[in-house]
Amino acid sequence: MNVTHFECALCRKHHEARTLQNLCRECGKPLLVRYDLASAARTLKPSTLVDRESSLWRYREVLPVEDWTNTVSFGEGWTPLLSAQRLAGKLRVNLDLYIKDEGQNPTQSFKARGMTAAISMAKEFGVKKVAVPSAGNAAGAMAAYAARAGMEAYIFMPSDTPRANVIECEQTGAKVTLVDGLITDCGKIVAERKEAEGWFDVSTLKEPYRVEGKKTMGYELAEQLNWELPDVILYPTGGGTGLIGMWKAFDEMEEMGWIGPKRPRMVSVQSSTCAPIVRAFKKGERFADEFENASTVASGLRVPKAIGDFLILDAIRASSGTAIAVDDSELVAAVGEMGAAEGVFTAPEGAACLPALRKLIDSGFVKGGERVVLFNTGAGVKYLECF
Ligand SMILES: *Cc1c(COP(=O)(O)O)cnc(C)c1O
Ligand SMILES: [Zn+2]
Predict the structure, then answer these.
(1) I need a surface site. Which of 14, 121, 253, 296 has the fewest CB within 10 A?
(2) Is the pLDDT of residue 1 over 90?
(3) CB 156 within 8 Å of CB 208
(4) Model-level pTM?
(5) Which residue ranges form the domains of the chain, and what is each CATH number?
């Protein structure tokens, strides 16, 4: 185990890592896990990865679990990076295009990556009850991992969350409360009740481990592309955990000497009816104001206020990336287009990357010959109401 401490992402204050913690005690912002990477790199090497398990736990030296018997896993991660040349053929310029298909994870979304890390660590610390506010897929993943760990799961979701998410939670034994409001309202309920109820709050970026699970997308991308990162990554952004995680992974890999300083241009894709990051990016702001009357059928993108907003915006700017919004009608239509071209039935969140890519080609941001990765973050079968 190579964890040395937690570091506050904003004020940089160090916190003790071997205790259960949520946010920075100084400023209330997210904590990031720091590792002794020189120690990790002694056994974790590109050459030793070849024989390892086909899950994200192949990168165990840069993951937080100390006692491996605490790992709660369904074999998540190590999802395929699908070449998408037929889809590329429908674009105005010639691209080396890929889809990272996160819909193939357990519980059909990349939320499994975050939850395998968070629930494993909750188990390591002896937690018995976990709670989460969710737009949908985080709930489904948490319910499954909590059941496998023998924990009680308390879930708060907006009442108009896709039905598949509600049913999967109920059928995997979670206690589900539907809230007349948004994920931010659900988060307030968890925050108010957690102390009295004895719940550990697994809200994204309000505990340090979900981002650790999700950062493995960055490691996988590098490994699958033979340690050369793509030119552009399009990432459908809600809380931004995956984008923040990948950005962290790139720095860790550089520190271990696996990659150079070159980074992909990170593109945050949102729905035009819930686009707080796009708005803040355009205004040149480091923190994003809450987006009023947020709505979108891409439920994973319905996050009007993200606690990690500054980390998303910092990464986008440091990478010379951008943030772009697409309409719900465009992203729903793109599900069918991607499905017909490549056979991947994407979540509407993932499909949002396609109209975003077209706009970026038109504006000249993405140029012919570039290597571009679209993140399909979930599976379309969970969103039957959309079609
Ligand atoms: C949660 C979710 C997102 C947003 O992920 P973040 O890392 O929180 O930005 C995107 N797509 C799907 C399918 C999701 O479930
Ligand atoms: Zn702080």
Answers:
(1) 14
(2) no
(3) no
(4) 0.97
(5) 81-109+209-386 (3.40.50.1100)
